[in-house]
Amino acid sequence: LNLYHDDGYLLAEVNEEITPGAAENLKNLTLHIKEGKKVRIKKIQFNGNDQFSDARLRRVLKETKQRNLWLLKMGEFDKEKYEEDKQLLIDFYNKEGYRDFEIISDSVKYSDDKKRMYIEFNVYEGPRYKYHDITFSGNNLFSSDQLKLVLGIKPGDYYNKEELEKAVYDRVNGLYMDRGYLYFNIIPQEIPVSENEIDLLLSMTENHQVSVHRVNIVGNDRTHENVIRRELKIFPGDIFSREALIRSQREIFIMNYFSDVTPDIVPKDEDEVDVEITVKEKSSDRANLSFSISQTYGLIGGGGVEFNNFRGRGQQLSISYQQGTNYSIYGTRTNAYKSFSVSFTEPWLFDTPNLVGGSLFYTERGYSSSYYYYPYDLTQRGGSIRWGRRFRWPDSYFRGTWMLSASKKEYHNLSDYYKSMVLMGRDKTTNVSLTQVIARDSRDAPEFPTKGSVLN
Length: 456
Description:
single chain, nine-stranded antiparallel beta sheet
């Protein structure tokens, strides 16, 4: 019965029947089930809401929706998600300044034919609060005016529970923890002073600075420890900094060698702490095998491998090879085709923030008489070398890369026209290029980031 209810069949009936079995000590159990139809939410109604319409409050509910086939809303009911949506409703009002908001009662009713569901909320909105005065106590390191600037909330602003928690536990708390006050404590007190005004008193205990005793790396079964340590922004002997710890977590995560990076703080004594960073290895290597059919080159097959953490040293190695078989399903003549490339990158040369790399490639492509044709046989070979550097300015998210590339093309079986008019009598050409790339990447994760940006 619970299984049916969880899937929205709230009218399902299950009855058991026990009958004698084939022997004295055996019984037959038969379950008689009436599934009924899945109950859909027909209407969600609110009573007591003056500041927001029913339609606006329905949009706050994330999973509990009225049935509306035009908007692809099926109106399914899930008890657990319903409870979560009720909390979303409370959070919405608290965010808009209604700190006294409460759901007085809620009820679920059914139509006479028990095919439709009606949900009704009785709510109390209360007044919309503003901040009357904001004061601090126990602050010696920073003045009250400095803390008000960091807090970002002013008298006269509307109360917003979400913004208050962010201001207190992220901005003010972060200000102290970034300066080593790990045991800093802050308690916000909301004191009503009129029907729609509150005073905000922030009581703080600053305590003392702590330093980092050790930084331990745990869980790196494949990746060498120095590959992780060279990305750290926090070191033994430093004054503890939450910002440096979060940035270290980000730098390790963005390498894309780990599915999870979890920092932890282990107190050693009153003045020192150990930082423990636990990583969970994941495979970031790739292999591919491909086949294709071309009218010009026939059946082409090949593959490649890409190691993004080669030998666990953070190096990148890529090898790719493709070749035509000179076999065509059309029964026509096909032309030669071959392609090979290899590249290698060392992102930290001698554990310094200098990137070096190189690549080589070779291709053969035969004469084609098809619509998109090459009126000659072409052989091309070349390579490149790269050097990159992490910058400190404008900020440490910037880096630059310079690449010098060279290639040589050789043309065979050219017509007199192409050799004289297009290639000016030459059957070989050389290309040299210098490329500079300036990039900034401040994403918080390599896959599915939630903040940051990428600029090239």
